[in-house]
Write a structure and sequence with these properties.
The structure is a single chain. 71% of the residues lie in helices and 0% in strands. α1 packs across α2. It is mainly alpha-helical and 199 residues long. It has 11 helices and no strands.
């Protein structure tokens, strides 16, 4: 199977797109959303402001792209399978916790805590982040646990328990969690959650 080769113009466009996102990410995390102008992002990315707007119609749209970039390879929603409930929840919980403990993800959450309300970023943040990540869990619980009266509520409670270590880090308390500590935390949460939802 032949691998498609990008034309020079398409390759340049892809490079500019990536440069704009990386520049915006760096500036948002260093200076904040409100203090970062599209002019400054263009300057950092070494493109014109018109080029920035060609790729991103607004600063909010660029922020959403930055969030996807921060997620990196985990930008695609978690894929559930037909494995036992406990195994599926442990797999999802591990994915969710690792995602939220990434240093740049912590930076985005700090930004949201400071600026989310005044900059009207909440909707963009929810659509580009939590809603996208949570939807597969909600659908999974609907299918595998049909007796649950409110799968969305249970999904939110599960996710809140899973990412609790992130909240300590955001407040400046505690050390970064190693892989084994993350695994232990996820397994404890999953056992507690299953005990709570079992008939």
């Amino acid at each position: 199977m032949e691998i498609p080769v990008l034309s020079r113009s398409a390759e340049n466009a892809e490079i500019k797109h990536s440069d704009i996102i990386r520049s915006a990410e760096s500036l948002f995390l260093q200076q904040g959303f409100g203090a970062t102008s599209m002019d400054r992002i263009a300057e950092e990315a070494k493109v014109t402001k018109q080029t920035v707007y060609r790729y991103f119609p607004s600063k909010e749209a660029l922020f959403a792209a930055v969030m996807q970039h921060v997620r990196g390879r985990k930008s695609e929603p978690h894929a559930f399978s037909s494995a036992p409930l406990i195994d599926e929840l442990i797999s999802y919980g591990g994915y969710l916790l690792a995602l939220h403990l990434k240093p740049k993800a912590l930076g985005v959450y700090r930004l949201m805590l400071i600026e989310g309300a005044q900059e009207n970023l909440s909707q963009t943040f929810m659509e580009a982040g939590p809603q996208r990540v949570m939807q597969p869990l909600i659908e999974f619980l609907e299918q595998r646990c049909p007796a649950l009266d409110d799968p969305q509520f249970h999904a939110q409670m599960f996710a809140t328990m899973i990412v609790a270590p992130r909240n300590r880090l955001l407040m400046g308390g505690g050390n970064r969690m190693g892989t084994s500590a993350q695994k232990e935390h996820v397994e404890k949460v999953v056992r507690l959650f299953i005990k709570a939802i079992e008939p």
